[in-house]
């Protein structure tokens, strides 16, 4: 069930992008999977190719630090930081921000190129998911076609480990839509147009997560 205070983010998203009304229910369901993951100590692992790889990095950047809402660290940690180092600790206590852990699987060049060169190009994200992932995490696979084979290999590992699969695709959904716990299929079929709709959706998810975990009622 979506909290009342979070509905404003969905309402604004649909107001700005009316064509997303067709996948509104899946956007909400996708958010609830993410909320439950973080509420139980999980993390988000994200992968995509090309522009979707950039989206994976973008999402992690919004979640690992403040997006809009201040995220001060707990007083207990502030006290420990200052006790360990009064000067540096004071600065860290003031400037650190609570994260929502998100790992873009596109970002580890030495690991990814070594695996591609030594083992298997199509398993490059699956290998990282096996290494970083655990039951209760969420894998977000971004594929405009829904048929990216390195993403599909990752979904096999995710399901084997008890990691939920969240898909972000175009209107056709592809194979990814058939294996995802939730798949948001935006109503476009041209790659760049699909990507243009992915961004406001994941921005909305990030805003909602931040509001839920770090908003005024927290």
Overview in brief:
With 218 residues, this protein is α/β, with parallel strands linked by helices. It contains 10 helices and 5 strands; from the N terminus they run ααβαααβααβαβαβα. It has a single domain (4-69, 99-214), classed as Rossmann fold, CATH 3.40.50.
Largest sheet, in brief, is: 5 strands, parallel
Kindly estimate the percentage of residues that lie in beta strands according to DSSP.
5-15%
Indicate the mean pLDDT: 96
Number of domains as seen in the coordinates: 1
Q: Tell me the structural class.
A: alpha/beta
Distance between the termini: 18 Å
Gyration radius from CA atoms, angstroms = 18 Å
CATH topology (level 3) name: Rossmann fold
Put simply, the count of helices is 10
Number of strands: 5
The CATH homologous superfamily name equals Glucose-6-phosphate isomerase like protein, domain 1
- Series of secondary-structure elements, N-terminal to C-terminal: HHEHHHEHHEHEHEH
